[in-house]
Design brief:
Sortase, Chain: A; eight-stranded mixed beta barrel; five-stranded mixed β-sheet; disordered N terminus; 7 helices
Length: 380
């Protein structure tokens, strides 16, 4: 009887151990899947909408099927009003992209989706559901995370052009001013209609900030898409394995037991500082969610190193797995703020450093895996 009792406990311990390994593995795999989604879906949305714009311009037959002239507008997509389910009916089958928001002076081309949920802002610019789509005498508000699509809107100046581009029309706006607004402060209105681009301020802040940077552009006019004189071959529709940016996101390979100690910001609450980008990044990757997603991975590796250093005297295995070439394994406290600097060349993230007042951890991408290559003094 005692032997049977022991066997039951043995089975329970084994099952519990397997479950812990599965949970730890999921904690590593899920962020990787999310980061891949965030880095690629936005590029797919852009490619899809550009394809549809090209198709309408290239074929009068397609233009007749897709476009109509709505009352009070000039050459706009017929389905630019909101439906009961809150979606733009004109985007059905187009990966739910409503249009492209472009600012040529800062090389911004961003996909727009209706709404401002976390899922939407992770891959696109969101359209405030309480406002109109771009049109004369209407106000349209578009929102995006800082260090993402709107990371450079603070470089827009009065007179710069903002375009709202759909398959059937292009609506043009001119920037009139930029504002920093605190919670509860009102925004001005303009009789001709405006688009407002809103993001967190500062635009490179990794921490939560209640302040908003707002760019206001006044309506100029709407032109209907016209077939070009010569037609170049239409671009192929993107597949799930393609991306307009084509970034190769680095990945982490943490020991499951180390990941299970909690390596996310939720597990290690600390104030964040700023994200800085150095090197020669491509325009498309700089104004996309990719740097922000990569910084999240870098911060997780920083916390993993902090836990491994604290555990080194008992067992050096964790440290040797993630920083085998680094001799400095002295433990350090979780101090704020954490600042991230990424080195990007073209579309490739090559390295990053995570620095706090206590320690600076340098991480390098080796065969697409993010590994720690040095640990040094902290930064102020």
């Amino acid at each position: 009887m005692a032997k049977k009792h022991r066997s039951v406990w043995t089975v329970l311990f084994r099952v519990t151990g397997v479950l812990l390994i599965v949970v730890a593995a999921a904690g590593v795999v899920y962020p990787l899947w999310w980061n891949h989604r965030s880095a690629t879906v936005g590029a797919h949305l852009i490619k899809h909408e550009q394809y549809m714009i090209h198709q309408v311009a290239a074929s009068p037959t397609v233009a007749r099927q897709v476009c109509t002239t709505s009352t009070g507008t000039t050459g706009t997509l017929s389905a630019t009003t909101n439906t009961k389910d809150g979606k733009n009916p004109g985007t059905a089958g187009l990966l739910d992209v409503a249009g492209l928001l472009e600012a040529p002076s800062i090389h911004l081309i961003a996909p727009v989706q209706h709404g401002s949920s976390n899922d939407t802002l992770a891959v696109a610019v969101g359209h405030d559901t309480s406002t109109s789509w771009p049109a004369p005498n209407k106000t349209s508000i578009f929102l995006a995370h800082d260090v993402s699509w709107f990371s450079n809107i603070n470089h827009l100046s009065a007179g710069d052009t903002i375009l709202w581009r759909q398959p059937c029309s292009t609506t043009t706006y001119k920037v009139v001013k930029s504002l920093i607004r605190h919670p509860g402060q009102p925004l001005p209105t303009y009789p001709k209609g405006t688009v407002m681009l809103v993001t967190c301020y500062p635009t490179n802040a990794l921490w939560y900030t209640p302040d908003r940077y707002v760019v206001i552009a006044e309506y100029v006019g709407t032109t209907r898409t016209a077939p070009p004189v010569s037609i170049s071959p239409a671009p192929s529709l993107p597949t799930k394995s393609q991306s307009a940016v084509s970034p190769e996101m680095p990945f982490l390979a943490l020991p499951p037991s180390l990941a299970a100690t909690g390596v996310t910001l939720q597990d290690n609450e600390v104030l964040l500082g700023q994200l800085r980008i150095q090197g020669n990044p491509s325009i498309s990757i700089k104004q996309s969610p990719v740097p922000l997603d990569a910084s999240n991975l870098g911060i997780e590796l920083y916390f993993a190193a902090m836990h491994a250093a604290a555990h080194y005297s008992a067992d050096p295995t964790w440290w040797n797995d993630i920083a085998p070439q680094v001799a400095d394994h002295a433990p350090w406290p979780n101090t704020a703020p954490l600042n991230v600097t990424e080195q990007i060349n073209g579309n490739d993230i090559t390295s990053m450093s995570i620095c706090s007042p206590a320690k600076t951890v340098t991480e390098t991408v080796v065969a697409q895996m993010l590994v720690i290559t040095s640990v040094g003094p902290g930064c102020s």
